[in-house]
């Protein structure tokens, strides 16, 4: 646990933004899988209430923006 604490204590802003981007990409992946499962459902008349496509798009765009903003800092070290 102390290694993780030390990482976050001394991580640069670029590293933290990249971690947030990875988290947003993970949520986008889950939303994409959930949408694929909803499309393949057996009873087509049972419509879900969660907007998985919207969640996917929002999380993917935010993740891409965070990754793009952190790229220069990650490359520089």
Give a verbal description of the structure.
With 77 residues, this protein is mainly alpha-helical. It has one domain. Helices cover 79% and strands 0% of the residues. Helix 2 runs antiparallel to helix 3. The radius of gyration is 17 Å and the shape is elongated. Keywords: Membrane, Transmembrane, Transmembrane helix.
What does this entry show, briefly?
The protein is mainly α and 77 residues long. The chain has helices spanning 2-10, 13-39, 52-76. Helix 2 (13-39) packs antiparallel against helix 3 (52-76).
Mind sketching the topology for me?
Layout: H1 2-10, H2 13-39, H3 52-76
Helix pairs in contact: 2-3
Notable features of this structure?
single chain; 77 residues; mainly alpha; 3 helices
Could you tell me the radius of gyration in angstroms?
A: 17 Å
Helicity, in percent?
A: over 70%
Q: Are there runs of 5+ residues with pLDDT below 50, and where?
A: none
Question: Structural class from helices and strands?
Answer: mainly alpha
- Note the main sheet: none
SSE string, helices as H and strands as E: HHH
Percent strand equals: under 5%
Keywords: Membrane, Transmembrane, Transmembrane helix
Transmembrane segments: 6-28, 49-71
